[in-house]
Amino acid sequence: AKKNGKGQVVFCSGKMKKDVQEKMMLTSSLYRALEKHELTLHYQPQVSAESQAIVGFEALLRWNHGELGPISPAVFIPIAEETGLINSIGEWVLLTACVQNKAWQDKGFTPVKMAVNLSLEQFRSNNLEAIVRASLKQSGLEPRYLELEITENIAMRESDDVIPCLHRLKSLGVEISIDDFGTEFSSLGRLKDLPVDRLKIDMAFIQGISQNSKDESIIAVMIHLAKKLGLKVIAEGVETEVQLVFLRDEACDEIQGYYYYRPLSKDQIECDIYNISTP
Ligand code: C2E
Ligand code: CA
Ligand code: CA
Ligand code: CA
């Protein structure tokens, strides 16, 4: 036990010490991960509930640490956010995702949207709009094929000038969706002021299908709300046929989840999905 600044005794267990050391280690290697090309993007297909055609991809970061192997985004994204590294990483993600989507279009594949996740820090950095604009310009991707995913938590913030920034992004012609929808206590009234195109129903609700009738009711209401507001709606984390059938019956537009596809590397997408008819 040690004394902290206030003279109180605090305990630092071996486990805590190990966690802190591990985090410091990850933090320092994350600084170099971009230049060492340890970061890559995987792409998870999004499917039309009606036609089952692929209508988009979500770009998801992967970190293959030189010594430790793959590190989950749930671990390193928060570190990237705390250190501000998410700004340079996020810039790389935007450009890479746009370039990849344009490359697939140039190969003759049906144009679909590419969704990219944004962190709050990127809104605070004041140059998000310029970065999005530059990614579009440099890749040559038409804006309507880029979608920006912001969490409900970001979208509902009163401060940080998020809303004006969203309007400026929207006027570039990109699509905007609200991620993890339903997980925050948001004021539904604010939805009408947000320049958004799509709600993404959080996986937690999808897991309740056939388990919890309250989750089912909430999903039905969220889909209904989206339709009434003229928004599209996508369900994420769909793993079973039962979940799919429920969502289709409720007229959910799009489906993302392991039932159809896991996040795949560029090569896997090209071989498993696009190469079906090539010699
Ligand atoms: P998210 O944006 O909510 O992404 C969905 C997560 O659910 C992904 O986890 C995806 O692999 C996973 N998933 C998709 N379908 C299923 C399913 O059917 N079942 C289950 N159990 N999981 C499914 P992942 O790739 O580990 O990413 C975790 C989080 O890390 C993301 O959550 C997002 O918040 C963050 N993240 C990932 N890439 C980026 C990025 O480029 N920028 C930022 N700012 N955050 C990112
Ligand atoms: Ca997302
Ligand atoms: Ca999500
Ligand atoms: Ca999430």
From TrEMBL:
Residues 23-277 form the EAL domain. Signal peptide: none annotated. This is EAL domain-containing protein. It comes from Acetobacterium fimetarium. The lineage of its organism: Bacteria, Bacillati, Bacillota, Clostridia, Eubacteriales.
